[in-house]
Design goal:
Length: 581
């Protein structure tokens, strides 16, 4: 036998063995799937038949499916038929039939929290702070938010009867006609200081790109000096909408994002498909730690292409793509099918769900494992940790007293009182709370419970606990009492010490009572540090050019900050948080 024939037979034998292994492996996989499904069905059957109490079969199965998916990532989820409509509102479209108001529960009572402009609730003079007593003669006492929301929603054009109460006045019955409620993706747009155009995009659902386009067209009529796209606290949504929005500022046929997963047929590269609406004006994108997914595609790709300056805090770090699959009986499952990669080649995913710790917790990408990539102009950027801003702005937390006043609804209640006793205020852009109004708020708080603990008080309590354990408290009690009394005396002045930020949240809530969501934005413009930096950067042509060309300190984005973040841990104890993650 010739050597050639030997090699030929060896090749055939190897191929046959390989095919046999693949067939065995495939059959083994099928066997394991069949076996585990049989075990699951058998357990469910025996529990359903033999368990001592009645079981909710639908709930039992959902619990089992949820537990199965829980070991993957938080974005892979099962949606039963009963939750389909809520799912669509959250991830697909914001349209539904209703009255245009949101509600909350308080002491087993239902109150209006917000009213949307131009919808039935506002037209019927329903206001935040009004109590909802009945809907179509159904008493709401003790009902959950979900139950009340279902009663408010219905077919467009259908009547709904509400019994409402305001302050101590007698209840009033109001008849409304449900309308199609479409909450916009773009919640605000207009001109801000420096003749800059400003667009606030809250989510990437249906038509978000169209809404941004319309906002940009309107803004361009004012000949703006630059554009600010605000993606702060935008958790993302539809990937294709993100690509369309980037295309407004980037030339045709530019790669924006690619998705890569296990199934090659689902791998895809998205490119811009048309000429941009605004390719030249200076552009800033605002992000924070709650900007995720599609927000990071927009911010990250514009950064990689050196088209925009990113300002704010590090984004969340979600670089995963989901797809929904229809299941029997009008249910569905949403599955993570790929990771996405922006133009430089980096993936922003910050958590590794594949390699969990023994206790099930998830690892963050270690600084040492991050890889360097280059933007179009050669700036260094890094994967595995969200999108780092070109210009970092520290996120300052409100003081404990401010958080307590908000959390215990003191701010909300005072705004309700203020609206019911003041027929109007100045426009939101110029509105400023007077000293008399603030003093009135302080009087309003008298006798009300808005107790809170400062960090110093918590440390002092911890000291007492440890000293007591070690039987040393008696020795330090004198000093402890002196410190405690000093802290209490200082705490009494917190309403004046933190007056500026308390006024800020009061103005925000009061302005919303007269001008709804638009009022919240406009009254806060004067306090917005990221917005101020955006205007300043676009007005400073030298800084703008330095950032986009990667000159000096702007040559490297992200890596130096990673080490610095650890050093700033003590800032968090002082109420300052760079990442909030």
């Amino acid at each position: 036998m010739t050597q050639k024939n030997v090699y030929r037979k060896l090749g055939i034998t190897t191929a046959t063995l390989l095919l046999a292994v693949l067939v065995w492996s495939f059959n083994e996989d099928l066997f394991q799937i069949s076996k585990n499904l049989d075990v699951f069905a058998s357990v469910y059957k025996e529990v359903n038949i033999n368990y001592v109490d009645d079981v909710n079969s639908a709930k039992l199965v959902k619990t089992g499916v949820d537990a199965m998916l829980d070991g993957l990532d938080p974005y892979t989820e099962f949606v039963p038929e009963s939750e389909i409509e809520d799912y669509k509102l959250k991830y697909v479209s914001t349209q539904y039939g209703g009255i245009g108001a949101s509600i909350f529960n308080r002491d087993k009572k239902v109150f209006i929290s917000d009213v949307f402009s131009g919808f039935p609730a506002q037209k019927a003079d329903i206001r935040p702070g009004d109590q909802l007593l009945k809907i179509n003669d159904i008493d709401l006492t003790g009902k959950t938010n979900d139950q009340v929301s279902q009663l408010l929603k219905g077919t467009k054009g259908a009547a709904v009867k509400l019994l409402t109460k305001r302050d101590d006045a007698a209840p009033v019955e109001k008849s409304l006609i449900r309308d199609e409620i479409k909450q916009p993706n773009v919640t605000y747009y207009g001109m801000v200081s420096g003749n800059m155009g400003y667009i606030k995009l809250d989510k990437f659902l249906e038509n978000s790109a169209d809404e941004v386009t319309n906002a940009l067209v309107s803004i361009k009529k004012n000949n703006p000096q630059g554009i600010i796209l605000d993606l702060r606290s935008n958790g993302g949504g539809i990937l294709q909408e993100a690509v369309k929005i980037v295309n407004l500022f980037v030339q045709k046929d530019v790669e924006i994002v690619s998705q890569k997963g296990k199934i090659k047929e689902k791998n895809f590269t998205y490119r811009t498909v048309s000429a941009p609406l605004e390719p030249n004006l200076p552009l800033v994108v605002l992000v924070n730690s709650r900007s995720a997914s599609a927000s990071e595609i927009v911010a990250g790709s514009l950064q990689d292409l050196d088209r925009a300056v990113i300002i704010g805090q590090r984004s969340y770090g979600k670089g995963l793509v989901q797809q929904t699959f229809t299941l029997p009986y009008n249910s569905l499952v949403k599955i993570t099918i790929a990771k996405y990669f922006i133009p430089s080649g980096r993936c922003v995913q910050a958590l590794d769900y594949t390699h969990r710790k023994d206790d099930g917790s998830v690892n963050k990408m270690a600084d040492s494992s991050l890889h360097e990539y280059k933007t179009k102009n050669g700036r260094s950027v890094y994967d595995g940790s969200g999108v780092y801003p070109d210009i970092m702005i520290k996120q300052e937390r409100f003081a404990n007293i401010t958080q307590a006043l908000v959390g215990k609804l003191m701010i909300f209640d005072y705004a309700t009182k203020y609206r019911n006793t003041h027929s109007k205020i100045s426009d939101a852009l110029s509105y400023k709370m007077s000293d008399d109004d603030y003093n009135d708020f302080v009087k309003f708080l008298a006798g009300k419970d808005y107790s809170y603990n400062t960090n110093s008080e918590r440390l002092l309590t911890s000291l007492k606990t440890e000293a007591t354990k070690e039987k040393q408290f008696n020795e330090i009690q004198g000093e402890y009492d002196i410190l405690k009394n000093k802290l209490m005396a200082s705490k009494k002045n917190d309403l004046q010490i933190h007056k500026e930020e308390i006024e800020q949240v009061l103005e925000n809530e009061i302005a919303s009572r007269y001008y709804n969501e638009r009022g919240r934005y406009e009254v806060n413009f004067k306090y917005d540090k990221e917005l101020a930096q955006a205007v300043k950067t676009m007005q400073d042509k030298n800084q703008l050019a330095a950032v986009l060309k990667g000159t000096g300190e702007y040559k490297v984005i992200g890596k130096p900050q990673l080490a610095a973040m650890a050093l700033k841990k003590t800032d968090k104890d002082k109420g300052i948080d760079d990442s909030d993650q």
